[in-house]
Write a structure and sequence with these properties.
This protein is α/β, with parallel strands linked by helices. The chain has a domain at 63-216: Rossmann fold, CATH 3.40.50. Helix content is 44%, strand content 17%. The protein is built from 10 helices and 7 strands. The chain has helices at 3-15, 20-40, 51-60, 83-89, 105-118, 129-132, 150-162, 175-178, 180-183, 209-216; strands at 71-75, 97-101, 122-125, 141-145, 166-171, 188-194, 202-208. Strands 3-2-1-4-5-7-6 form a 7-stranded mixed β-sheet, sandwiched between helices. Strand 6 (188-194) and strand 7 (202-208) form a beta hairpin. The termini are far apart. The relative contact order is 0.13. Bound molecules: S-adenosylmethionine. Residues 76-79, 81, 101-104, 107, 128-129, 145-147 line the site of S-adenosylmethionine (SAM). It is an enzyme of class 2 (transferase). This is Ribosomal RNA small subunit methyltransferase G. It is found in: Cytoplasm.
């Protein structure tokens, strides 16, 4: 491992409270990413030296926002951020399953390879979001990062969110302009959580108001 990645790993591990075993699985993931990156170009090359903070820790922070959630769906997973990081972390929860939707076959193959090497409980869907989401069953949490403007994410996820799924979308500074249409709809409760990773933006948390009322009665894992 290069010295800069090693320093970044130490920085990220200070941001994340994870077990030694989880950190070791993340290291397997990072090693595979570095190996595949040279031939498959899976993430922006300039972000690789900071893979631990920019990608692993940035993804990891979502788990604390839904500590009991077991079934997650990540739209446009790319090289697995945030969905594969979440899957590694929640691997020991009974019923844990993370759907990774990624239409690029080379990225989907990478996701399967990391899942095989780490035992992460994922289902990789090498298809388009709009074709997969309508067929999904009950989902606790829907995620996306660096995929599309919030109204589009919302359009893709609306059926799930209306049914009680918690939306957690990692966004950059563009969120100030994007959030208006969703924020104005009284059917949805939306708020913003400051990212713990340096230099990144905010996490948009969306829930249907009716579903929030249902949750008070105790019928959801995504608290
Ligand atoms: C900019 S990358 C972000 C990847 C990852 N979420 C991250 O933050 O590193 C967006 C990914 O979404 C995938 N994607 C875009 N539109 C999609 C769609 N309609 N269905 C499935 N995958 C899609 C692309 O192939 C790409 O890998």
């Amino acid at each position: 491992m290069s010295r800069s990645i090693e320093l970044d790993r130490e920085r990220a591990l200070r941001l994340m409270a994870v077990s030694r075993e989880t950190a070791d699985l993340f290291a397997i993931y990072v090693d595979l990413l570095a190996r595949w990156q040279s031939i498959k170009n899976l993430v922006g090359p300039s972000t690789l030296p900071e893979v631990w903070t920019r990608h692993i820790a940035d993804s990891h922070q979502l788990v604390a926002l839904a500590p009991d959630a077991r079934v997650w769906t990540d739209m446009g997973s790319g090289a697995g951020f945030p969905g594969l990081v979440v899957a590694i972390e929640i691997r020991d929860r009974p019923g844990a399953q993370v759907h990774l939707i990624e239409s690029n076959n080379r990225k989907a193959a990478f996701l399967r390879e990391v899942a095989r090497e780490t035992g992460a409980p994922v289902v990789v869907h090498p298809r388009r979001i709009e074709d997969v989401v309508p067929d999904l069953g009950a989902i606790d949490v829907l995620t996306a990062r660096a995929l599309a403007p919030l109204p589009q994410l919302f359009l893709w996820g609306k059926r799930l969110i209306d049914a009680g799924t918690l939306g957690l979308f990692l966004k950059g500074e563009e969120i100030a302009t994007e959030s208006a249409t969703v924020a104005e709809d009284p059917a949805y409760a939306i708020d913003f959580v400051e990212s713990v990773t340096p230099g990144s933006g905010r996490i948009v948390r969306v829930r249907a108001v009716d579903a929030a009322a249902g949750r008070e009665e105790g019928n959801s894992n995504a608290r």
